[in-house]
Amino acid sequence: MAIIKPNGTLSGRVGELVYQYQKGMLTVRQRPASYRDKKTEVQLAQRDKMKAAQQLYRIVKEAVRGCFEFKKTNQRDCDCFMSANILELGIVAQGTLPTLGCRFEDCHAVCDIIQEDWKEGDVLRFVRVENDKVKIEDKIINSPLQDKIEETVEEDGFYCWIHIRQGRKYTHVSTQKLCQNTPKTLPQVGSASTLPPL
After folding, report:
1. How far apart are the C-alpha atoms of 198 and 189, rounded to whole Å?
2. Residue 154 CB: number of other CB atoms within 10 A?
3. pTM (two decimals)
4. Percentage above 90 pLDDT, the chain
5. Which terminal residue of the chain, N or C, has fewer Cβ atoms less than 10 Å from its own Cβ?
6. How far apart are CA 137 and CA 134, in angstroms?
7. 20 within 8 A of 8, measured Cβ to Cβ
């Protein structure tokens, strides 16, 4: 059954036609006549990757908004996130700025600041994922006076720092991956396991 939304857009099935929006454009396709699911090991592994990436996106979607520098016009953050996380689970930002290191000392997440990499007005975003909830803390760095910045963290939480620079036309970001405050890490792509509870 198709649904007409208040803004006049159409999505769903009407007879043998399926209407949907992909990358901001309305597409129409014919409903498949038959479908055979072979459920091969490769298919099942790919479905596990998609499921883990979707689960992670539901948790971190507020933190990753605008954190994909190479996003095409009308492309959603979700699409960029899924593309990046199919290859390597845990990517929360992709861009051209230098990647920031995240290490743990005692009960603190530490980010080293290289002063030459920063310009006035740059933002340092700290992403904290603890107990299935995400918290975002943005700090404007006008002139870095410190060599490192620390945040108190919990054990078994996932964390990262993102460098964000607003340009004239685009937002520039550093490519960042969530790190866990224990020896454990996010599952690698290709493993049959799903994302651990965040």
Report:
1. 17
2. 11
3. 0.72
4. 42
5. N
6. 10
7. no
The helix (run of H) or strand (run of E) holding residue 7 is: none
| Alpha carbon of residue 76 to chain centroid | 11
Tens digit of each residue's pLDDT (9 = 90 or more) over 101-126: 888 988 899 998 888 889 889 999 99
Task: Indicate the average pLDDT of the chain.
Answer: 85
Contact 112, 83 (CB under 8 A): no
Report phi then psi at 77, rounded to 5.
Answer: -60, -35
Q: What gap in Å lies between CA 178 and CA 181, rounded to an integer?
A: 10
Q: Answer whether 50's CB lies under 8 Å from 38's CB.
A: no
**DSSP code at position 142:** S
Q: Which residue has the higher pLDDT, 6 or 136?
A: 136
Q: Are the C-beta atoms of residues 52 and 187 closer than 8 Å to each other?
A: yes
138: tokens are 């943005």
Contact between residue 164 and residue 68 where contact means Cβ atoms under 8 Å apart = no
pLDDT digits (tens, 9 = 90+) for 60-107: 999 999 899 988 888 899 999 999 998 889 999 999 999 998 889 888
Tell me the DSSP string of 23-36.
Answer: TTEEEEEEPPS---
Return the SS3 of 19: strand
